């Protein structure tokens, strides 16, 4: 079935009782990732790529069995390593990946041996074609070579799978390509090859993400799962194999991201899915012992930890399989909210309370069993700012030295006495004693705080006050030309106003008052306005306008 795992072996009525009887095991974070990266696991080892923002390059990180993660002593790469882990002909764990002379061209297959920490180029790499996604199992290596059918972009790619027997002098053998597609993951276990592609099959009107089954001995490609991909970009990723099943992820906006298991014990493979209840970025690894790792995105479904996102991804080790009947505690989640998140914007001087919630969700299969508050954890407030090293291209966080502590209900709050014009804040919770890894509240708050302004009109004299002080700023005296309002279902009223500027005034040296003369002002509705555009260049500059003032 290509269905959710709803028809469980345990009756749904018994889930609550079982949840209370069996304590939940907790997922734990292995590493923070500034970019999403392929991950691989085998033989107690784990591998991924770590991005260095300073050089914009990647290092291959390997956690050898019983050892802490460390960068492999090999050259860095301009792109994330398409790394796999598997056994060589002597059963030793090896890592395979491609290394390119440019970002994505002239790519050849390399192998890194964990036993002696040495890298070597495999001799069957083509001098004219690019290889990708190499995987090894014993005496056999599978990979793809990049081909294109014309046109532009990955939807025009026609990758061709190959297999090579290392002990043979025979050249690599080409396997059935199937319909055109770009390979996004490859897995090898004995004779069985699983390939995930994204592309445009012949005569198709949509792009497909496909899970394909091949044999190293040859034969036709068998498509065992497919997902039409449109604006919501639902795609399969990261095939892993056990003796009887294939493990993947499916990410996108609708439906929710899922863990996928394809059971191969039937004539027609059966696909089951479990909702992740996490922002899966796509990468997944599962070793032969059944331990599973995944990458949790920073904020949104399918978030790939792009350079524009200040929130890191997290490489997570699952405490139990998502398809296990045992309850599993996900990583903690932190939220943040502020008055500026709503319309209309708050005025300077109004109470400004930043608040949020720290919780840990307990799941079984794709059912949320409960959500537990996490108490007594310090929460640090962070200011969201543009990264000075990459202005306009990336945001970052700046510590504020402001802390709060979660209460028994997991809630935290802090009252900001003088909020800035752009109160863009996030928060991070971390506590070794409470078992809480760094947990960010996403990109955080949005919106603005408006200056508190007044306007008094006496004949041709227009004057008023401003808080906070805005010395030297220019106030625009404006007359209302038109107003169109509507009320939304939630009761919020929004008006689209058109104003005409009829005069200007310079704020005094103290920054708290202004005055202007408007010759023969016609009857109507007037306001005093500070331009909002100024707040983008100067965080101490506030925008806003005074309440409507009738004249005549």
Question: What is the topological layout?
Answer:
Blueprint: E1 3-4, H1 15-21, E2 25-26, E3 28-33, E4 40-42, E5 45-52, E6 57-63, E7 70-71, E8 84-87, E9 93-100, E10 107-113, E11 118-121, E12 131-137, E13 140-145, E14 160-165, E15 173-174, E16 182-189, E17 192-199, E18 207-215, E19 222-229, E20 235-241, E21 245-251, E22 258-263, E23 270-275, E24 280-286, E25 292-296, E26 313-317, E27 328-329, E28 333-334, E29 353-364, E30 367-373, E31 378-386, E32 395-405, E33 411-415, E34 425-431, E35 436-440, E36 452-453, E37 456-458, E38 461-467, E39 474-487, E40 493-506, E41 513-517, E42 524-530, H2 534-537, E43 544-545, E44 549-551
Parallel strand pairs: 1-23, 2-27
Antiparallel strand pairs: 3-26, 4-5, 5-6, 6-7, 8-9, 9-10, 10-11, 12-13, 13-14, 14-15, 16-17, 17-18, 18-19, 20-21, 21-22, 22-23, 24-25, 25-26, 27-29, 28-29, 29-30, 29-33, 31-32, 31-34, 34-35, 36-38, 37-38, 38-41, 39-40, 39-42, 42-43, 42-44
Question: How would you summarize what this structure contains?
Answer:
The chain has 552 residues and is an all-beta fold. The protein is built from 2 helices and 44 strands.
